[in-house]
Design goal:
There is one protein chain. This protein is an alpha/beta fold. It contains eight helices and five strands, in the order ααααββαβαβαβα. Strand 2, helix 5 and strand 3 form a beta-alpha-beta unit. Helix 2 runs parallel beside helix 4 and helix 5 runs parallel beside helix 6.
């Protein structure tokens, strides 16, 4: 029987249970932890049954053989438990790896969506900036055009007419506001500087009202013109305007006057430029 097979291979009766147990234990490692545990529980019973049936020869010293069996069973049990723990750890690690892969995939999806949103917001911001730049350019062009129109209006509001190289005529029309009077002084002084004129005639026939503000502006203009080496002559002062100027106490003693422009121009050759 099995005993004879063991003896024919040179295996002693004392080592037969150990070899059989190792063969079964290897099978337990190959199949799984549960088989190893089954081996640990069934091995002592199997050896006892085989010995009772005289299928294997037991050594005279049964205690040594029993010790082998107990040690082998304990080793099989520990190995089976370790294998079970290892399998559990491997399954847990695989589960963690799957969760990590899912979390990484979710994070990549979130990053992709975030990048897409950032790209959309960036494109919208660039469009808004481009539109704002276009509006700013249009506004700048509009302001430049407005300044050009204002300059044209000022030039038309104060048309300075050169009569000779040294004589200028400025007809005033309408109501003189603070802004218009400031523009008037600036325009006249620039024109005198450009033309080197020595006399300017200011015709106030078309001025509707001359109040304190207008009177002070005319006096300031005459003083500034005098500093440039030219003289100012007011022409076209109506009687009611003259009465208003007197009632206001405006001092026009330093400003020449003439009833009409013709009279003022006629007196130029006689008096000369002072």
């Amino acid at each position: 029987g099995i005993s004879a097979l063991s003896s024919s291979n040179g295996i002693g009766p004392a080592s037969a249970p150990l070899i059989y147990g190792l063969i079964i234990l290897i099978g337990g490692f190959t199949v799984g932890w549960w088989f190893g545990l089954l081996v640990a529980l069934a091995l002592p019973s199997a050896i006892t049954i085989l010995a009772s049936l005289e299928l294997i020869s037991m050594p005279p010293d049964w205690s040594a053989t029993a010790l082998y069996v107990i040690l082998l069973s304990a080793y099989a049990s520990l190995t089976a438990l370790y294998t079970r723990s290892l399998n559990s750890a491997l399954r847990e690690a695989a589960h963690r790896a799957d969760e990590l892969a899912a979390a990484r995939q979710a994070l990549e999806e979130i990053n992709r969506q975030l990048e897409q949103r950032i790209a959309e917001r960036t494109a919208a911001l660039e469009q808004a900036l481009a539109a704002q730049a276009t509006q700013a350019q249009a506004l700048a062009a509009s302001l430049a055009e407005q300044q050009r129109l204002n300059q044209t209006i000022n030039d038309l509001s104060f048309p300075i007419i050169p009569v000779r190289n040294d004589i200028l005529i400025l007809p005033l029309i309408g109501v003189l506001s603070t802004q218009r009077t400031n523009a008037l002084i600036e325009t006249v002084l620039k024109r005198i500087e450009q033309t080197r004129a020595r006399r300017i005639f200011i015709d106030v026939t078309g001025v509707a009202v001359i109040d304190t503000l207008v009177a002070q502006a005319l006096l300031q203009l005459a003083a500034a013109v005098r500093l440039l080496g030219a003289t100012t002559t007011l022409v076209g002062i109506r009687p009611e305007v003259a009465q208003t100027l007197v009632s206001l106490g405006a001092d026009f003693t330093q400003v020449r006057t003439a009833a009409t422009l013709q009279e003022g121009l006629a007196g130029v050759d006689k008096v000369g430029v002072s």
